[in-house]
């Protein structure tokens, strides 16, 4: 059977774009199909607009803090519409860059919704990006599914009144009272954004501490940081229903409490996007929440079809999708895989203010492998000794495997934590030991120097058998 393309990539997001570009660079005939927005979630409804909005939300406090440093500026008011317009302009610019980058790589760009007809044939149907286009079919030898994920809402009465992150990026005005449900990445990042811009934020979550899965000490530190940011926390709580009341909403919680809001925001996770993909016409198998099953080579259960990124739902981060796309393209082109990486040492950051960044194992995870030495510090960063915000602490923790003395986990909550953690991730990936940190000279005066001057073991935690 003749194929029009060597490779068809479905989805022009973080993973798909990288996979297509690398394969084209190796000389393959490549097409990419995109239904909604070039650049995918990260560029349009994720990392990029989120980070711009986090940055916007930090200026208000900075203006106030500057008084202690001799400035006389006043905080003023924030213009939400201006921020959204500036952010949209930047994203439109990035969309254009993605298109021209793909075109320059000699890739065929197809717009529409992709649906499998069989394992090597995909029908392209009209979609928001190409509403008037006539359907057509494409054949390819290899097909990569890189369709990402989509937000989920709890199935409760009134859920239709709640927004998700998708809508939060385009609200016409900033809501004054926001109830955010969920204390994962998105819940915390948007709680910080709205609070910093002047909204009253209620954060509702089911456990005792936010950020399930993160190191327990850091979760406790984050709980304090959330309070310091002026956000009201409702732990051990979940919404049972939402009612529309006048121009606002009332949210009833399972602890009997009712919260009034102008906006209810569900940050309750995402699911793989496989809607109307026609997987039933192939042998591609999915698991539990729709995740496409793949092996370590990103092969699905259908020969010739592969999946990368969020649609496989293991560590849903842009750099992971990119790395998977890159390695898959190399492998399909018969090139040596340039690098291998470990999910265990993939760094992560939650862009709250201050951010929390981490690499490697939590203390709890590490004790499953053996006893650990813990080094912990909590201090007021220099800036806030003058600003007076002494409740804005910096917290750092190193988790060291006792037997090998390797640093197996590093965790920082504090200004610039994400910037700091990239370098620390190199050290943890390289398997460096505590003594290597000790013999590294610090940069003074910084918060980061604490990571190489932590001399006294805070505690020793036995292994969990
Ligand atoms: C609010 C938010 C903030 C985030 N912040 C960060 C962050 O700071 N750092 C980080 O590392 N990660 C962040 N993420 C996660 C990151 O965005 C994702 O992990 C990443 O985008 C996944 O890339 P992907 O290639 O798997 O999918 P996506 O980027 O989602 O791309 C999939 C593309 O496929 C298209 N598509 C879907 N179905 C079809 C179809 N049938 N036909 C044609 N096209 C289709 C979609 O329109 C989309 O453009 C954030 C996510 C969200 C929601
Ligand atoms: N900075 C970053 O790297 C970044 C930022 C945003 C998103 N992301 C990625 O996107 C993914 C999705 O983000 P997210 O914050 O939506 O998911 P998440 O899994 O991080 O958090 C979801 C939260 O919602 C809670 N929850 C789920 N169902 C609930 C219910 N019915 N009632 C109350 N609470 C409920 C969960 O307990 C959890 O705390 C992340 O896991 C991450 O992979 C990354």
UniProtKB/TrEMBL annotation:
Positions with a binding annotation for FAD: 51, 147-149, 310
Gene Ontology BP annotations: cell redox homeostasis; cellular response to oxidative stress; glutathione metabolic process
Named cofactor requirement(s): FAD
Protein's recorded name: Glutathione reductase
Family of the protein in this entry: Belongs to the class-I pyridine nucleotide-disulfide oxidoreductase family.
Keyword Protease: no
Originating species: Acetobacter indonesiensis
Active site annotation, chain numbering: 444 (proton acceptor)
Gene3D superfamilies hit by this protein: 3.30.390.30, FAD/NAD(P)-binding domain (3.50.50.60)
Gene Ontology molecular function: flavin adenine dinucleotide binding; glutathione-disulfide reductase (NADPH) activity
Subunit details: Homodimer.
GO cellular component: cytosol
């Amino acid at each position: 059977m003749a194929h029009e393309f060597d490779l068809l990539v479905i989805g022009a997001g973080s993973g798909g774009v990288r996979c297509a570009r690398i394969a084209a660079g190796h000389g393959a005939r490549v097409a990419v199909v995109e239904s909604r927005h070039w650049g995918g979630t990260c560029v349009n409804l994720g990392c990029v607009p989120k980070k711009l909005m986090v940055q916007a939300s930090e200026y208000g406090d900075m203006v106030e803090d500057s008084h202690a440093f001799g400035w006389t500026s006043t905080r003023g008011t924030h213009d939400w519409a201006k921020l959204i317009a500036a952010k949209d302009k930047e994203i439109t610019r990035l969309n254009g860059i993605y298109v021209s980058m793909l075109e320059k790589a000699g890739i065929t760009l197809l717009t529409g919704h992709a649906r499998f007809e069989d394992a090597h044939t995909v029908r392209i149907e009209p979609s928001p990006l190409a509403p008037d286009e006539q359907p057509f079919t494409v054949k390819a030898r290899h097909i990569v599914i890189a369709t990402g994920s989509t937000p989920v809402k709890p199935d409760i009465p009134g859920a239709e009144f709640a927004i998700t992150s998708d809508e939060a990026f385009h609200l016409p005005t900033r809501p004054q009272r926001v109830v955010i449900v969920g204390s994962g990445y998105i819940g915390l990042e948007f709680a910080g954004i709205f609070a910093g811009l002047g909204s009253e934020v209620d954060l509702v979550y089911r456990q005792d501490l936010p950020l399930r899965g993160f190191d327990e000490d850091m979760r406790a530190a984050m709980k304090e940081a959330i309070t310091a940011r002026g956000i009201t926390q409702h732990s051990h709580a979940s919404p049972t229903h939402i009612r529309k009341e006048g121009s606002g909403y009332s949210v009833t919680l399972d602890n009997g409490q009712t919260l009034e809001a102008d906006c209810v925001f569900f940050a309750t996770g995402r699911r793989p996007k496989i809607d109307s993909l026609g997987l039933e016409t192939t042998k591609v198998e999915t698991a539990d929440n729709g995740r496409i099953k793949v092996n370590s080579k990103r092969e699905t259960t259908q020969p010739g079809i592969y999946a990368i990124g969020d649609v496989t739902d293991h560590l849903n981060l842009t750099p992971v999708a990119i790395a998977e796309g890159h390695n898959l393209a190399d492998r399909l082109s018969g090139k040596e895989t340039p690098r291998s990486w470990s999910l265990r040492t993939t760094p992560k950051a939650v862009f709250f203010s201050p951010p929390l960044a981490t690499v490697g194992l939590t203390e709890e995870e590490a004790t499953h492998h053996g006893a650990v030495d813990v080094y912990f510090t909590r201090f007021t960063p220099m800036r806030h000794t003058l600003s007076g915000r002494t409740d804005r602490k910096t917290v750092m923790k190193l988790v060291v495997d006792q037997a090998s003395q390797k640093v197996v986990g590093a965790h920082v909550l504090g200004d610039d934590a994400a910037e700091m953690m990239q370098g620390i991730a190199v050290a943890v990936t390289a398997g460096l030991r505590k003594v290597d940190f000790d013999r590294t000279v610090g940069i003074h005066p910084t918060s980061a120097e604490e990571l190489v001057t932590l001399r006294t073991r805070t505690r020793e935690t036995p292994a969990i058998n």
